[in-house]
Amino acid sequence: MDIDIVGEKFDLFEPSDTFRLGGNSAAITIDSMEQVGGQFDKFLSFLLNNKPRVCIHIEPVYEAYDQDNLYDYLAAKYSEKRGYLRGYLTRLEELQQQGELKLKKIKRYGGNIYHEGWAIIVWERS
Predict the structure, then answer these.
(1) Which domain holds residue 65?
(2) Is 21 a member of any domain?
(3) On the chain, which terminus has fewer CB atoms closer than 10 Å, C or N?
(4) 54-112 confidence digits (pLDDT tens)
């Protein structure tokens, strides 16, 4: 199998104007978006403009917490206090409603009582 993989230093707050993703590429984030809090718009715009074939995020997903469950409620409060990623899934769902993208998978994989560190979101452009 011949796989062409390229890595580059990348600023999620100020994505590079010169770095481009190919149309048959995959964009994958793992525990990096959690650090942007609610400031994901520029990175999301970068992804939408570059049109990778698929985007895969393995990140904490605040919106996946069940606030009626005590453990999830506490984990959500912890996430809020730490300023972790929040609102990203909601924005993707809005873009899906507008026909901009298609959410393929949203699944929680676990964490601990403080933090949902392993959830997955998979989406592609419509």
Answers:
(1) 26-106
(2) no
(3) N
(4) 999 999 889 988 889 888 888 889 889 999 999 999 999 999 999 999 999 999 887 66
Whether residue 17 is contained in a domain is answered as no
* Consecutive H or E run containing 45: helix 41-50
User: 16 in a domain, yes or no?
Assistant: no
In angstroms, the CA 119 to CA 61 distance is 6
Residue 34 inside a domain? The answer is yes
Q: What is the pTM of this model?
A: 0.88
Distance between alpha carbon 120 and the CA centroid of its chain, in Å? 8
| 53/47 Cα distance (integer angstroms) | 10
Evaluate whether 103 touches 122 at the Cβ level (below 8 Å). yes
The secondary structure of 49-96 as a DSSP string is HH--SEEEEEE--GGG--TTSHHHHHHHHHHHHHT---SHHHHHHHHH
Token pair for residue 37? 């809090």
Backbone angles phi, psi at 41, to 5 degrees: -60, -45
